[in-house]
Every structure is written in C-alpha cells, then in structure tokens.
TrEMBL record:
PANTHER family: GAMMA-INTERFERON INDUCIBLE LYSOSOMAL THIOL REDUCTASE GILT, GAMMA-INTERFERON-INDUCIBLE LYSOSOMAL THIOL REDUCTASE
Protein's UniProt keywords contain Repressor: no
UniProt-recorded name of the protein: Gamma-interferon-inducible lysosomal thiol reductase
Locations listed in the record: Secreted
Organism encoding this protein: Plakobranchus ocellatus
Molecular function in Gene Ontology: oxidoreductase activity, acting on a sulfur group of donors, disulfide as acceptor
Major localization class: secreted
Signal peptide start and end residues: none
GO CC terms, sorted: extracellular region
Entry annotated with the keyword Disulfide bond: no
Keywords from the UniProt entry: Glycoprotein, Secreted, Signal
Family: Belongs to the GILT family.
Length: 110
C-alpha cells in the first residue's frame, strides 16, 4: 500500500476511532502527503527548516530506529507495539475492523 493511500484511510477514520486509539505518525523520508490535507503546508515547511524541526526529525528517527522488528518498508504499521505481515495486510484491507478487533478495554469492577 502506498503511504498516501494509508494516510487517506487514517485521516478519514481517525475521528471515528480517536476515543479508543492513540495514533502516532512517524514521518519517514520525504513525505509529501501534507499537500493533500487541510494543514498549513507553509507553516510545516518553515518548521522543517528550523532548529525545532531538526529536533523533531531527530526524535522521529530515534523512534523509527527503535522499532522491533526493524522496519523494512514504509508504511510500517504496528498495533500495540507489534508488527506482522498479517497486521499489515489487514490494515490495508480494513483498518477500522483491525482496530476494533484488537481493541483492548479494561473494565474496572467495583
């Protein structure tokens, strides 16, 4: 799946699932998806050229390098810190179903 196709799926469905999931997008390489979405592209470009942008890029590189197993391609999808080919294929097929099927809720019993 192309990264831009996954970005479309995430952008469309995150509002539906935001109450049950924590989404972390780690930019990798020359991601040019921002122009497709209603985000302030000029502000993003200015940030990317600043010291703060360099600091953020370094933090994302550390997150990328810490993935276990190490990522082999982009996009690299993990659910609850786990990546498998089955997760990747299911995310491409039906991301909402995958999130709902793997959602773990803890019930506080009184």
């Amino acid at each position: 799946m192309r990264a831009s196709a996954l970005a479309d799926i995430l952008f469309t469905n995150f509002a539906k699932l935001s109450s049950i999931m924590n989404l972390t997008l780690v930019p990798y390489g020359n991601a040019h998806c921002a122009s497709k979405f209603p985000v302030p592209l000029e502000s993003i470009m200015n940030c990317s050229k600043s010291d703060y942008g360099n600091e953020l890029e370094h933090k994302m590189a550390l997150k990328t390098n810490a993935l276990q197993p190490p990522h082999g391609y982009v996009p690299w999808i993990t659910i609850n810190g786990v990546h498998t080919e089955a997760i990747e294929k299911e995310a491409e097929r039906d991301l909402v179903k995958l999130i709902c099927d793997t959602y773990k809720v803890s019930i506080n019993r009184v």
